[in-house]
Amino acid sequence: LCCTASIIARMAPFLSTPLIKGHNEAYLPIVKSSMHLLQVSSGPMVMAFLMGLQMMKKKLTDKHASTFYTDFWKFLSKAEARDKVGRIVQYACRMLQGILAHLPQESPLQLYKPLVAECQTTLA
Prior knowledge:
The chain has helices spanning 2-15, 34-61, 68-76, 79-102, 113-123. By secondary structure, the chain is an all-alpha fold. Helix 4 runs antiparallel to helix 5 (113-123). The radius of gyration is 26 Å and the shape is extended. The termini are far apart.
């Protein structure tokens, strides 16, 4: 009983922070500007949009299931499809290398140059 009281006393500052509203780590933090409100509400807005799309798909097709993954794996199971996807990735890597060649050397994107080159040579 004595240990429990000391644990609660040590956790009192943590338990005194509001959980719902008015604290940086609350469910509804203090909104400092309109951009901050947009940033905080963007996640729930995206989820609501995706839920609406799923409900619209259910109304149009009468099923929630998607055949995209089965079709995608059927596509990748063929050797010719894997070769084409590899070639597309190689072209994308070549494009990125060209873009990085024209960027200044102090650009933070230059850190990806060896990674892009390795990806291209691995797929070759």
